Amino acid sequence: MKKTGFLVLWLLFSLVTSLECANKSPKGRTVTVLSIDGGGIRGIIPGTILAFLESKLQELDGPNARIAKYFDVISGTSTGGIITAMLTAPDKDNQPLFAAKDINNFYFENGPKIFTQHSASAAGPMYDGKYLRMIIKELLGNITMNQTLTDVVIPTFDIKLLQPIMFTTSDAKAKSSKNALLADVCVATSAAPTGFPAHYFETKDEDGKTHSFNLIDGGVAATNPTQVAITLIFNEILKGNFKLVDIKPMDTTKILVVSLGAGKAKFEEKYNASMVSQWSPINWIFDKSGTPLIDVYSAASTDMVDIQVTSLFQALGAEKNYLRIQDDNLIGNTTSGDIATTTNMEALAKIGNKLLEKSVARVNIDTGAFEPVLGEGTNSEVLIHFAKLLSNERKIRLAN
User: Fold this and answer.
1) What is the spatial distance between Cα 39 and Cα 224, in angstroms, rounded to a whole number?
2) What confidence tens digit (pLDDT) does each residue in 88-101 have?
């Protein structure tokens, strides 16, 4: 009898212990992040790289493998926001609406129409934006932010409030006022100043109160949205809302980040202190060598993020967990965000393919230049390695 009682107690203890272990054990080991820069028609560059990454995932997990199934957060600004929506919008079967290989098809088919619809008013933006709004609405329909297949974050900027507005899946699920149509968010984040009209739309909160948004391109705040995505994750961890992986705030050793640039002009030391000290306000806006003020803000928005993220990962000995793929040597028409000729789009696709074969590079924190890293292989080799890590992480979570 005593033996029977002891056996029952032992079984109960074992059951409770196993349940506690099950509750404490994380569902996965690594938090996964994908970030896509803004850049207009240059979105063909990250589109090319994403098609490569998804093809490697398909080699491992079958033809139905899709980017959205492997990343906890996908962030995108401007054209990167459109790509983010294409990757994460659900179809009627709750599967990704588009494959990564569809991204460049979108640009080749629609780019020339988006960038030839000129504004009728000489005082207005360069493009009237009618085709852009039409095609995005046609693609995304009435899909709302809370329906995306993984968490997304898409930056915009409210020109009335003069502050950034971040649209995220988590906010959309928590607050009706942030549960905008995905199409509206895409048009807003793509409304580049001087290029397209600002985008206005409204939402309603739980009490029926109307919330108004007067939005322009998120690139004025975060052309490179990598840090926005990482901050979102850390905030969710601090709030106790992040349940996918057992991770502490700021622990980059358990975060895997793929950050894709859309290319930028070849680095040239065009300006110096002596030169700009003589400039009038008009020279800052338009000079014979370019558009200095726009160049400064664009470079600062993109490079500051890369420098800070690189510093964070290096400080914690996790620099190999952060892969930034960017070409900072664009010349001629490829530097433009709105030259959508077949010739230029094909050139951008070639740049994307060449980037795959280039050595992994990291930003030099002192100069801002990208420098090859010896011994870490090419971007394609690291992406193949990342694909294996992403595949294994997904299998661990499915098993749990």
Assistant:
1) 10
2) 999 999 999 999 99
